């Protein structure tokens, strides 16, 4: 047990360190901007007064390390600074949007994970059958489609032609749960289609890899039934790779959300990020990137820890 | 050459289709000025004209010919994606081969840098960096090439790591051969197949990412014709049940599918798996 | 058919009968026949040894007795009758019922064939429970009893461990126990001791022989080692390229083989190098002394090791896995700089790391590897492989290089036309010859041979050893052999160094080392090498038993 705890603590420590480095990059990246940041952002037509105000706002007159520490401490206390575009508190701006993004990702995950894992396992079990080849062509095609292509096709049919779902996912916090789900149907479906293909391919590969192990042949030669081989011999060893596949794809969802939010004008964090990048609203970009990166790192960390906990060699050390 | 045709003949339908798609796209891209009836940024008609004898695919939001823009889009989008991928490959594989052959602190340092790059989602990192360097074409190429050199590094390192431990590399080391001889004569020739397949896959990712960025308005900027931004410019038409804006999106999808089909076949051919019956 | 074996015990009715068995394997998307109509008859309680080199089809035939063909293989013709049932046409359900309960299988690698997620005893009990033969508690108590009979330590508790918590030799015995769990009529042993050290092999062989005998189980024992199969079987079948070469009782096969191929297999270990005169007074070519080395700073794999090699002499370093013999080779070549100790070559102290050695120093010490497959760059032609050291060390280029290349190929008995081939177009033995030519091209004085014959079939290995000897006689090179195989040691060395756990336990001239009295570990090692005598194992076990009874202390195997 001690070894496992030690490994988990190590991973957590590594995760924290990564987060710290990422925060450095996100903060210091801006410093790499050639020339004066204020002029670069505000453009050449900016008056000296606005430039001075801008510098004060970004606290550009302070030395770099002081600003970084202040920024980091602020984030840790939930203070993300103020938007340059409209002067509002970023934490206010981000709060609702982040929960909207998570909501969308969860809906997509709830639909896609079970379908993808089941279909992927089936493709592995009936390898080289007609079904498996169809799965291969479908998933190859699906991962080749840009998200916005899938999104617009869905809009064309479900919103314009058949009028089943709304083409714009304008939600607000006062909406009921089901209303919310109804509004995010198309974006969630888009994400599902994109992510299912990846997840199925990875699940299939993991299971096929496993079924080639000598201990599966041994179970066959012990006269164990096919269903028991799958459930009793393959599954316990497949858990770690499958969990890994799922978590990696959840992380992918969080990122895939950006484009989809823009297509459906869904008020999530991704849309805010894209808006802020085009406005060069740097504090908002930094804060959103930090949140996305942190979520992503956290999910990868979860995958790491889960694969440690499900590894029999580590669970039962010598 | 004869062998190539023989190989091609034995290829599955999907791979042949994929090759055909790639060839057509390259053809269109290279010959864009010849086969297009109008100029790339020339306004030749009214806004959103439907397809007609004069404008085969109609006109866009500014009254430019869609067919012409599609042709130039092939040239620009594919060209930029290709340059970016090639750059990413050059950086990634040189670093990866160095890391595995030299080992020690060089390997440690490069690997940790790559770990950090990969710990941030690529699209998010790209957005952050584009905020800083600005959305110019060299900016987009540079940023994406650096970001994608990280996974290429990982693969190149992993593949060549398996080669570096083989005895024939040790023989070369013990003979007293220099670093470059070992990398170029011993390690690289034996690491090629996975890297070639990876080039195809990475091209798809890069191509999709550039298209996504352009679609978000943060990639290739107007008036350059580019498939991603063409979707964005004409997206409103979709709500009227028009499929025109889907054409560039479909073009992106078709090319990516084509490349993926070919890569899939190549992977199958080189992995030595022969169970497909 | 002879059914009486030498021990005189009567065997029963026919249990398994394969007639005209044909099996096809798939390569390059085409089916090729790999077993061409083989007949096998096995009676109850009889042990049949299937022996042959790689590609003989022995494992494929053995496993076909269960009505099973590995992925990529298929049974294409003939009949397989097990206890009156025809297996080639039986449906999967019928075969499933037989497998595990009436026909059991013991695999080569127990470590890979046990499921890492379950305890040993659960994997043992699974077969009888699933076949509805026993309850869980009954299966478990039988398991403990059987573990005890197979001399596994702590038989009552060892079953509650997971596979990775148990050593290789113990796992192989646990797998034998698992195969016995339903008291099957037939067990297929598929190279069960090939991956084990010789001293560990003894225990496993003894355990397998014991249970097969006690339960009167029929068995098919598959191996490439004639001496091992002689211990286990009543009858032996020699296979080559998917055909039967000859078949007969074990004793008959050992004492009067009919076919030349069988005779070659029998004689393979009889080659002996003529004894060389004592040259210990001369200045040694290589003198390694007081070497302590390891990976990282904590665990030292070599402790105070010293080896001396004279010109034109062959010194063998012998030991089991973990003895540090390969590490010693790495220290001498400079791949692993030692923490302490020195390498003196021809009176001159060499730098510890190969990176600091001069090109000429590197030239004078060459190495040949265990796996010729990975020691040759698959993308280079033979001309480039052998030609590179010529131009790199000796500056020979152009037609002079081509001439020298031709001479080198002649030395290793290959035609000049091989220069244009890629390694993939060569057989294993030919590849190893190319490796030898590459080493010779540098005109070295000392060649380190790291397990150079252990990846090769026995007959090919023998040819390589003879070639090396001829080359030594004409070129006067010295060899340092790193090996685990005492037959190789005896065949080719002038001097022997025995290593155990990173230390030299005994060294001296070959004749002296092989003559008693030995160091107790040398004794264990020497006595554990199977001999071509069907009674060897029984006699050995009886003798060890007697010595324990007399209160003598025996050296412990590393893996017990």
Summary keywords:
heterotrimer, B: 277 residues, mainly alpha, MetI-like fold, 12 helices, C: alpha/beta, Rossmann fold, 2 domains, 21 helices, 37% helix, disordered N terminus
How would you describe what is shown here?
Chain A is an all-alpha fold and 318 residues long. Chain A is built from 14 helices and no strands. Chain A has two domains: 2-64, no CATH class; 90-315, MetI-like (MetI-like fold). In chain A, helix 7 packs across helix 9, helix 11 crosses helix 12 and helix 12 (269-279) packs antiparallel against helix 13 (282-309). The longest helix of chain A has 38 residues, at 226-263. Chain A starts with a helix and ends with a helix. Chain B is an all-alpha fold and 277 residues long. Chain B has one domain: MetI-like fold (Orthogonal Bundle). Chain B has twelve helices and no strands. Chain C starts with 13 loop residues before the first strand and ends in an 11-residue tail after the last helix. A six-stranded mixed β-sheet of chain C has the order 6-7-8-3-9-10, with helices on both faces. Chain C is an alpha/beta fold and 560 residues long. At the A-B interface, helix 1, helix 6, helix 7, helix 11 and helix 12 of A face helix 6, helix 10 and helix 12 of B.
Quick gist of this model?
Chain B is 72% helix and 0% strand.
Q: In the CATH hierarchy, what is the architecture of the largest domain in chain A at level 2?
A: Orthogonal Bundle
Write down the overall mean pLDDT of chain B. Answer: 85
Main sheet of chain A, how many strands, which sense, barrel?
none
How many helical elements of chain B? 12
Within CATH, the superfamily of the largest domain in chain A carries the name MetI-like
Task: Indicate the topology.
The complex is a heterotrimer of chains A (318), B (277) and C (560).
Chain A: H1 2-29, H2 37-42, H3 48-57, H4 64-76, H5 90-125, H6 130-144, H7 147-161, H8 177-183, H9 185-211, H10 214-221, H11 226-263, H12 269-279, H13 282-309, H14 312-315
Helix pairs in contact in A: 1-4, 1-13, 5-9, 5-11, 6-9, 7-9, 7-11, 9-11, 10-11, 11-12, 11-13, 12-13
Chain B: H1 2-10, H2 13-30, H3 32-35, H4 66-102, H5 104-118, H6 122-133, H7 137-164, H8 167-175, H9 179-187, H10 192-215, H11 227-234, H12 246-271
Helix pairs in contact in B: 2-4, 2-12, 4-5, 4-7, 4-9, 4-10, 5-7, 6-7, 7-10, 10-11, 10-12, 11-12
Chain C: E1 14-27, E2 30-43, E3 47-51, H1 58-64, E4 73-82, E5 85-86, H2 92-98, E6 103-106, H3 110-113, H4 120-130, H5 136-149, H6 168-180, E7 186-190, H7 198-214, E8 218-223, H8 226-232, E9 235-240, E10 243-249, H9 250-255, H10 260-267, E11 286-293, E12 302-309, E13 314-318, H11 325-333, E14 340-345, E15 348-349, H12 359-364, E16 365-368, H13 372-375, H14 382-394, H15 398-411, H16 428-441, E17 446-450, H17 458-475, E18 478-483, H18 486-492, E19 495-500, E20 503-509, H19 510-513, H20 520-527, H21 536-549
Parallel strand pairs in C: 3-8, 3-9, 6-7, 7-8, 13-18, 13-19, 16-17, 17-18
Antiparallel strand pairs in C: 1-2, 1-4, 4-5, 9-10, 11-12, 11-14, 14-15, 19-20
Helix pairs in contact in C: 4-5, 4-6, 6-7, 14-15, 14-16, 15-16, 16-17
